[in-house]
Design a protein that fits this description.
Helix content is 29%, strand content 14%. By secondary structure, it is of the alpha+beta class. This is PLP-dependent aminotransferase family protein.
């Protein structure tokens, strides 16, 4: 998903890469995203949101 978002100009990183290797886990951790953003002009937020929604799984 992160690669598909990148191709649309939206920076995403899988949350697993931010998890401490020694952190306790209870079962299978859920999916998560870290969304990188900067301060785009107001008119760019709609397009960024559409791009993000276009790569998120539906369900």
């Amino acid at each position: 998903m992160a690669q598909a978002a990148d191709s649309r100009g939206v920076a995403l990183s899988a949350l697993a890469s931010y998890r401490h290797p020694q952190a306790p886990s209870s079962g299978t951790p859920g999916d998560g995203l870290v969304v990188g953003y900067v301060a785009p002009p107001d008119h760019a937020f709609g397009a960024a949101l559409e791009a993000l929604c276009g790569v998120l799984p539906r369900g």
